[in-house]
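quick one if you have a minute, typing this from the bus. theres a chain ive been looking at and ive put its sequence and its fold in token form underneath. please have a look and point out which stretches look like helix strand or loop to you. anything you notice is useful, everything is just below.

***
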Amino acid sequence: MKRRVTTILTGIGFIVMQFSCSDNFLDGFSGADNVESHYSEQFMKNQEQALSQYRQLLDSFDDVPLKAKSGKGKRAQTDKIYPESYGGAYIDGDGKLVICVTDSSTNARSFSHYVNDSNTRLKATQYPLNTLKDVMERMNAHIKEHPDGAIAKNIDFFAIDEQANRVIVDVKQLDKGYEVRLRNLIADASCVVFQDKHGSFDELASTSLQSGAEIVANSSGQGFSLGIRASLDSEEGFITTGHAAWEEGESVKYDGDVFAKLVNFQNSGSVDAAFCEITDSDFEVNASAGGSIGTEAVGVKVVARGYNNTAYGEIWYTNVSSNGLTNMSAFAFDSGSTLTNGDSGGGVFVRAGGVLGVIKGKGSEPGQTNLCIYSKASKIQDALGVTIN
């Protein structure tokens, strides 16, 4: 009887089980363990409307083409040209869109048509998003050039905080002298705020294997989570973590059986991810682990699924740099949610059928809110040349 790897969305993460082809495993699971079931119907309705308005807002900005990266399957990327009047946007606690506008009546008028929708409001802010992005780029450049320098060694992560209209620098130890040195390094940017709240992001890959749920690198025996469905050059497969102890051409096991092989991986730039091609036709990854790439915005409610845990939370940052990686995203866990060893590589979803990325790691500090950092699905597509589906 033909088998397939079927990823069921359950309360304990990605559980991989074997079914015959005649089994309709979706029966009884509709609406279970997704974002909609965790938050109120009104909130989800507001958020859907807000995301639609947010997409319209982004589409109103011009695209600037970026130079295509070299390598097989690489595609040209685009970025947005933001007006100086735009300070960013986020979803508030009611699921409604907040557009940040630099404080002037002229600037406010240029966005006023969005306020015709009761689901959207304007908020006066000090800094254009361009200013925050410029600070991030200068800091990224310094960290890349001096990865072992005093500045880099004291940083857990830094990110654009669109809600606060600031660049947040989370450090290992607050020190006035360090703050002065960093401000001088980036031209005394007043938009930078220092904090010591979250600690560094720990890798979540694990060599402690568990039955049923995890996939395993054959050579190292390292266990991690199947993430999101993808294809490359018409070959079906999936995305998982890039920080496993990968070897070239690595075979991947499920429940002791080799069913896939490593094709490509990256743990640098903005991507911590790997693409594995399914090599055993008796296996497949179900569509519940895939979908179109969802719209990402600060304040959006998300769910992340590793083989140990399902974690719910709210996006805090969509531009995070940490441990040498740049332009990732992070969400804060809801009370009672967490991720643990082995959850690396699991998928992050905005709603049913909306893929955001794969889990990189978790950061925490005693008594503080935990954060999950993840690689964006769009960046993974570009870096690995895959199609997320």
